[in-house]
């Protein structure tokens, strides 16, 4: 059996580790959980009504990718989303059709109906699809956790989010 020279072994090992780390690093965390499809949300909401969180995003949106990588994988945020919301990602440029209330629309058309001007935008809906409110732009873990609690506890009926944040600090 022929021995491999140490330098070749180091090169082969280095290349393997580089390729492996690129695959692991390139995977976006938070993409599989807690997200559900729009259709799953509609069906589940009929059987067990919950609040709905629509994460309006685009493939080219760097801030959206950052939130999916850094914010949504947080265990507290995942827990709140899994237990209190139906979280759905919507690509604002998608031509995929969905059934929204009583009409078929593309995700792009739905985005226009909601008046989306920028990404990311988070839209909160009540179980009957009425709009509770929205948040445009990046939210860090702390802000998103507070926002989810604000919506879950229905504090939006009592005050606005800015006042809520001042009173909780």
Describe the overall structure.
The protein is an alpha+beta fold and 169 residues long. The protein has one domain (32-168): Glutaredoxin (3-Layer(aba) Sandwich). Helices cover 46% and strands 20% of the residues. It is built from seven helices and six strands. The relative contact order is 0.14. The model is unreliable at 9-32 (pLDDT under 50). This is Thioredoxin fold domain-containing protein. Keywords: Signal.
N-to-C order of helices and strands? HHEHHEEEHEEHH
Mean pLDDT: 86
Number of strands: 6
Tell me about the biggest sheet?
4 strands, mixed
Per CATH, the class reads Alpha Beta
General form: globular
Radius of gyration equals: 21 Å
**CATH topology, which one?**
Glutaredoxin
How many structurally independent domains?
Answer: 1
| Strand proportion | 15-25%
For the largest beta sheet, what order do the strands appear in spatially? Answer: 2-1-5-6
Low-confidence stretches: 9-32
Distinct helical segment count: 7
* Gap from first CA to last CA: 69 Å
What's the CATH H-level homologous superfamily? Glutaredoxin
Helical content (DSSP H or I, runs of 4+): 40-55%
User: Given the helix and strand composition, which structural class is it?
Assistant: alpha+beta
- CATH architecture title: 3-Layer(aba) Sandwich
